[in-house]
Amino acid sequence: MAESSTVDMKEFQLHEKDTGSADVQVALLTRRIASLTEHLKTNAKDHSSRRGLLKMVAMRRSLLDYLSKSKNERYKSLLEKLNLRK
Fold first, then answer.
1. Which of 1, 47, 53, 84 is the most exposed place for a label (fewest CB within 10 A)?
2. Mean pLDDT in the chain?
3. Is there a contact between 44 and 28 (Cβ–Cβ < 8 Å)?
4. What is the architecture, at CATH level 2, of domain 19-82?
5. How many whole angstroms separate alpha carbon 3 and alpha carbon 79?
6. pLDDT tens across 57-79, in order?
7. Where are the domains positioned within the chain?
Protein backbone atom coordinates (compact mmCIF):
# COMPACT_ATOMS: atom_id res chain seq x y z
CA MET A 1 0.00 0.00 0.00
CA ALA A 2 2.82 2.40 0.80
CA GLU A 3 4.24 2.00 -2.69
CA SER A 4 0.97 2.89 -4.39
CA SER A 5 0.47 5.89 -2.12
CA THR A 6 3.80 7.39 -3.16
CA VAL A 7 2.90 6.89 -6.81
CA ASP A 8 -0.45 8.60 -6.21
CA MET A 9 1.10 11.48 -4.29
CA LYS A 10 3.67 12.28 -7.00
CA GLU A 11 0.85 13.01 -9.45
CA PHE A 12 -0.81 15.55 -7.14
CA GLN A 13 2.18 17.17 -5.40
CA LEU A 14 2.81 20.83 -6.06
CA HIS A 15 6.54 20.41 -5.40
CA GLU A 16 8.90 17.56 -4.51
CA LYS A 17 8.36 17.51 -0.73
CA ASP A 18 4.65 18.38 -0.77
CA THR A 19 2.69 16.00 1.48
CA GLY A 20 0.06 18.26 3.00
CA SER A 21 -1.45 20.38 0.24
CA ALA A 22 -5.18 20.11 -0.27
CA ASP A 23 -4.62 18.33 -3.61
CA VAL A 24 -2.60 15.53 -2.01
CA GLN A 25 -4.98 15.22 0.94
CA VAL A 26 -8.00 14.91 -1.38
CA ALA A 27 -6.22 12.24 -3.43
CA LEU A 28 -5.33 10.20 -0.35
CA LEU A 29 -8.81 10.56 1.13
CA THR A 30 -10.36 9.47 -2.17
CA ARG A 31 -8.31 6.28 -2.16
CA ARG A 32 -9.16 5.55 1.49
CA ILE A 33 -12.85 6.22 0.82
CA ALA A 34 -12.84 3.79 -2.10
CA SER A 35 -11.25 1.00 -0.07
CA LEU A 36 -13.57 1.57 2.88
CA THR A 37 -16.58 1.53 0.57
CA GLU A 38 -15.49 -1.90 -0.69
CA HIS A 39 -15.08 -3.08 2.91
CA LEU A 40 -18.59 -1.92 3.80
CA LYS A 41 -20.10 -3.82 0.86
CA THR A 42 -19.13 -7.09 2.53
CA ASN A 43 -19.45 -5.91 6.16
CA ALA A 44 -22.76 -4.08 6.17
CA LYS A 45 -23.07 -3.99 9.97
CA ASP A 46 -19.70 -2.35 10.59
CA HIS A 47 -21.13 0.94 11.84
CA SER A 48 -17.92 2.32 13.31
CA SER A 49 -16.22 2.08 9.92
CA ARG A 50 -19.26 3.67 8.31
CA ARG A 51 -18.91 6.62 10.69
CA GLY A 52 -15.24 6.94 9.74
CA LEU A 53 -16.21 6.86 6.08
CA LEU A 54 -18.72 9.67 6.55
CA LYS A 55 -16.10 11.76 8.38
CA MET A 56 -13.63 11.21 5.53
CA VAL A 57 -16.23 12.20 2.93
CA ALA A 58 -17.01 15.37 4.89
CA MET A 59 -13.30 16.20 5.17
CA ARG A 60 -12.79 15.69 1.43
CA ARG A 61 -15.83 17.86 0.69
CA SER A 62 -14.51 20.71 2.85
CA LEU A 63 -11.07 20.50 1.19
CA LEU A 64 -12.70 20.56 -2.25
CA ASP A 65 -14.85 23.53 -1.22
CA TYR A 66 -11.71 25.37 -0.14
CA LEU A 67 -10.02 24.63 -3.47
CA SER A 68 -13.07 25.67 -5.48
CA LYS A 69 -13.22 29.04 -3.72
CA SER A 70 -9.51 29.88 -3.71
CA LYS A 71 -7.72 27.90 -6.44
CA ASN A 72 -10.31 27.16 -9.09
CA GLU A 73 -7.93 25.84 -11.77
CA ARG A 74 -6.35 23.33 -9.38
CA TYR A 75 -9.86 22.34 -8.25
CA LYS A 76 -11.00 21.61 -11.80
CA SER A 77 -7.89 19.63 -12.68
CA LEU A 78 -8.17 17.63 -9.44
CA LEU A 79 -11.79 16.68 -10.18
CA GLU A 80 -10.71 15.61 -13.66
CA LYS A 81 -7.75 13.51 -12.43
CA LEU A 82 -9.72 11.78 -9.67
CA ASN A 83 -12.82 11.31 -11.80
CA LEU A 84 -15.04 12.93 -9.17
CA ARG A 85 -18.32 14.47 -10.14
CA LYS A 86 -19.41 17.91 -9.05
1. 1
2. 90
3. no
4. Orthogonal Bundle (1.10)
5. 23
6. 999 999 999 999 999 999 999 99
7. 19-82
